[in-house]
Amino acid sequence: MLSTRVQGVKPSPTMAVIARAAELKAAGRDIIGLGAGEPDFDTPSHIKEAAKKALDDGFTRYTPVDGIPSLKQAIVNKFASDNGIEYALNQILVSCGGKHSLFNLTQALLNPGDEVIIPSPYWVSYPDIVLLAEATPVIIDTGTESEFKVSPEDIERAITPKTRLIILNSPSNPSGVCYRRDELTALGEVLRKHPQVFIATDDIYEHILWAEEPFCNILMACPDLYDRVIILHGVSKSYAMTGWRIGYAAGPKKLIQAMKTIQSQSTSNPTSFAQVGAQAALEGDQGFVREMTQIFKGRHNFVVHDLNSLKRVHCLPAQGAFYVFPDMRAAISELDGIKDDIAFSEYLIEKVGVALVPGSAFGAPGFVRLSIATSERELHLGLERLADILGT
């Protein structure tokens, strides 16, 4: 009855965890929610005021499909000042969130049978968005021994004549690890030899970063790849604007224009007054982002410490985003009746009221993702409940 296309696509596992936690809370259960992929902060007031003013001024009609010129200019300015990358307005597409930007890209670029390289652990939506374009995800497994980073040799082995795209994400969801400039330069040396391969760099967590080295994406490391790199970005994470649904993409003019055509036949423009709020976010005081990042860093430090004090649990430190991604394989192996990370996650939420996301959703069985985007009190309570089960 339904299309074969949709039958191969899974609902978002993170949304499923959040929905189950909300259901149990509504039933009166005491649930510690560590599954959320959004900041636990309110959108800064100057952003909300800008959107309110736009509403009061009657800015409620259609806008250009690719976004209002003033927001696109703010995005151009952001890339110039933060990343040293120059774009024209016609190389920018404003969309309804970062996920929408990636969807537009895959629909505009990929043909049935094309291959897309995705290092794991990956954001849950990458493979399914590729499948919706009738292309084939090619997963490169990484692990703690490589700090969840793909190597040049890994990419060289994975590339075939069918390879059309590779997706990089740094800082990473779910691991929080970041690629260094020298690592990206090495990846670029391989990709340079395969001109048919485009590179999507998902930079949505760019400013939620506490690594010793400053942020760098592959285009900053390899400027000669300018005509093959698409930057996927947005305001959701850095400015606590997940519900506003404003993302953006920057890249080669021809590809961006094709993505615009796809968008024109789906959503048309992003919400008018939300675009005004996004412009205020990019152009306004960035102190909020710095303060929020320091809070996340503090939470991260004690959560990683406490996780590593649990019996047979190993957690690499992150350098950004707001997640930690501990290896639970050894711990799970000692729990009677629990065979994997999925069963472990179900046990935690149903029996002890801790909601987190199984690593299998990110292509990393045996791991779990904990969000630190909640209060210190909730984090301590959640860790105490884990300690009661696993021991220290």
Automatic annotation (TrEMBL):
GO biological process, one term: amino acid metabolic process
Keyword annotations from UniProtKB, A to Z: Aminotransferase, Pyridoxal phosphate, Transferase
InterPro entries found in the cross-reference section: Aminotransferase_I/II_large (IPR004839), AspAT/PAT-like (IPR050596), NHTrfase_class1_PyrdxlP-BS (IPR004838), PyrdxlP-dep_Trfase (IPR015424), PyrdxlP-dep_Trfase_major (IPR015421), PyrdxlP-dep_Trfase_small (IPR015422)
Top EC class, one word: transferase
Domain called Aminotransferase class I/classII large: residue spans: 30-386
Keyword Transferase listed: yes
TM ranges: none
Any one GO molecular function term: transaminase activity
Cofactor(s) needed: pyridoxal 5'-phosphate
Family: Belongs to the class-I pyridoxal-phosphate-dependent aminotransferase family.
Name of protein: Aminotransferase
Organism: Candidatus Kentrum sp. SD
Taxonomic lineage of the native organism: Bacteria, Pseudomonadati, Pseudomonadota, Gammaproteobacteria, Candidatus Kentrum
